Amino acid sequence: MFDGLMAFWISGISKAVATLLTYPLIRAKAVIQTTGGDHQGLWGMLAGIVRNEGWLSLYQGVWIMSYKTVLFNSLMMALKQKVSLLLMQWDRFRDRKRRQEKRALLEGQFRQSVTPCCSCEMPWEAAARGSTVMYVDGSWCFLHEAQAHILKEGNRLADHLVVGVHSDDVHQESVGTWPAECYAARLGRLRRKPWAATILENAPWEVSAELLDELKIEKVLGGSVTKTEDCTGGSPKSPSKNRSDAQEIVDPYAECKRLGVFEEVPSLNASTEHDEWMRKVMKIAFSNVDASIDWRILVSDGQSLILRCQPPWPWEIGAQFGPNPGYRDDDQAGIRNALRCGKRAAEGHEMQRQPGDGRLKMLQMRNFPKAWMANTGEDIEAKLRKLLSTFGDLTGLQVNVEPGEVTTAKAAFAEPAMAEKAVKALHGVDMRTAKQKREAGNQPPAEDEKFWAQIVPPASAQPAPAPSQEPVASQETYLLVEGFPTSWSEAQLRATFLAFGGVERLTYVPDSRYGRIAKIILKDSGKMEQVVKELHGSKVGDGDVVEECVLNCKITSAAVQKKEEEARKKREEKEARKLYRADVRKRREEARKEKERIDKESKEPNHEAHEAPDEEPEEPEEPMELPAKRRGAAKKAAARFEEEEREELRRREEEEAARAAAAEAEAEQRRKEDEAKAEAKKAATAAAYQEELRRRAKEAAEKREKEQQEREAERQRREEKRRLFEQDRMKREEA
């Protein structure tokens, strides 16, 4: 307003000055035009006016012009002010509209970020039907036991649990450091758990009242170990090291506590994401047995030097590493295979992880599409990984591409059901394109044109030498080691022989007594006798880091081992035959006694006298050669009886096998029926969900149509009212 008034006065004064300067010239020109005194000129006319009438006569009638000028200027300034006000109002209207749009966008941003997890219902929908909606947020790195406990408690207390996940940028801005895991990994792990009904992606660090109101949240949960402590591993009262000393950490739940909706749940323990990360780092750093521990101390037979390993690692206190912490067969063997055989050997060994896990299922495949083989099979692995990942989590994938041979691939799934689902979906699928089918005249595909996929037992179920292991020659002498437990890895077994020069080759062989035994060739073959002398029958391991056991060692070769194995099998067969014959004789004797008992019970006392005369007279003594014939006949009868017994046992075994096969087939049929029912139930659920979505979409469309009709009716009503008003106005004007 002040600027407008100042501009008005400046404009008025400038116009007044201009009028005083120009008006004498205008009056002189007007006098010249009216009197015809053009011969005097402009300046002569001015001089004549001053000479005849004085100086004031130059400004005669100036007030009329000044009045008109001032009036015109006032009108123009008023008009300009009105236009400026209109423009300012338009700017304010535009800013207000922009603010309203921004507010509407902000009000809907939380609902747009909510995605379903274990429930198809959104939190505001659950709140509308009276369910209790609770909220818990965090970064959820590693999802350790304390975090899982909070989520379980929230799932137990709430009808609908909303879990917020902070993005990497939000975590970094709030804590000062980047999270230990990426956002996609944290979000994916959380989706695989059954605790969250819905997930709020890119959740804000501070829980605001707008978030609570928009998602209809009644309670906000938090642990006794705060979110900031969990993410930083430090005290929440002190600022982060990456921040300035003057900056303090703001309580993310301050607004919730002010509103009285915050509820604290006791944490399971004091574990944090930082502790879990340190535990994993230490486990990896100290998993190299050759660098962290001198494994020669594991040999403790009482005669050699005994050095006990007592690791003073404080992070192992309370750490749950199992019976053999930090040392896994797959880690060490995978490293050695990668160094010796390259990346493919390491990937092949990766699929043999956790040999004791019977749930691991291997999927073998061949007959891939011809388009995949265009670049000599280089793209097969990426395409297979993308294809198989749709059926579940892959734990390993190995592709064998050899010139002149059929390209095959092996894949390992985390769950058996995933492998079975992949086989059902892929096996027998025609791999030809539409063009190839037309070129073949739409004939059925050949066997090599159909995708082949079958489940095979994992490599751990059929032990075989690792890629780095070479077969032992038949005449080569080696150590046969027995008695080590299944928890021992290849690295631990190799480390046992470090004191004797180290192991050159190691091969595992399945064994019925110990599960597996090892054939070992030392780098220094001259120390085999020393190994047998010091290790055979000795106790190895400390019982803390390495499981304690008694080793049996002997020097042998493949030929000797084969002979011993054959002799052992013969002994076992002989013992089995002896046991079988003893069993046959026992049953024969029992049958004979049973028959005699029955015959004895069937005879009555009054018949004994009548039957006595019918008894056959005693035969005369036979010559000496008859007993030999009788013995031969008895042997033949015994052999025949034994053969009959054997046939009877075989028949019974076949019947039992048939019954077992029938029971297995029936169980398989029931399993397939259960799977079919489960699939049908899942399909019905999906159909019901789709039907619900269609119903909601239909209701929304009907609502929009109804609103449109109401707006149209309102518009027509206003038009009619305006028309009637115009008619009345015109009538009044005519009157």
How would you characterize this protein structure?
By secondary structure, this protein is of the alpha/beta class. Among the domains are: 2-91, no CATH class; 117-240 and 249-279, HUPs (Rossmann fold); 359-432 and 448-456, RRM (RNA recognition motif) domain (Alpha-Beta Plaits, 2-Layer Sandwich); 477-564, Alpha-Beta Plaits, CATH 3.30.70.330. It is built from 21 helices and 16 strands. The protein has helices spanning 2-35, 41-53, 62-113, 123-128, 145-157, 168-175, 183-191, 209-215, 227-232, 254-259, 273-285, 289-292, 329-350, 380-388, 416-426, 434-439, 490-496, 528-535, 558-602, 605-611, 625-734, and strands at 114-116, 133-138, 160-165, 198-201, 219-223, 262-265, 361-366, 394-400, 408-413, 452-456, 477-482, 503-511, 515-522, 539-540, 549-550, 552-557. The chain has a six-stranded mixed beta sheet. The protein is elongated and about 190 Å long. Mean pLDDT is 74; it is low at 235-247, 285-358, 459-474 and 606-624.
Low-confidence stretches: 235-247, 285-358, 459-474, 606-624
Mean pLDDT over the residues: 74
CATH topology of the domain at 117-240 and 249-279: Rossmann fold
Question: Helix coverage percent of residues?
Answer: 40-55%
Bin the strand percentage: 5-15%
**What is the radius of gyration?**
49 Å
Structure in a nutshell:
This protein has 735 residues and is of the alpha/beta class. It has 21 helices and 16 strands. The strands form four sheets. It has a six-stranded mixed sheet. Strands 8-9-7-10 form a four-stranded antiparallel sheet.
Notable characteristics:
single chain, 735 residues, alpha/beta, Rossmann fold, Alpha-Beta Plaits, six-stranded mixed sheet, four-stranded antiparallel sheet, 21 helices
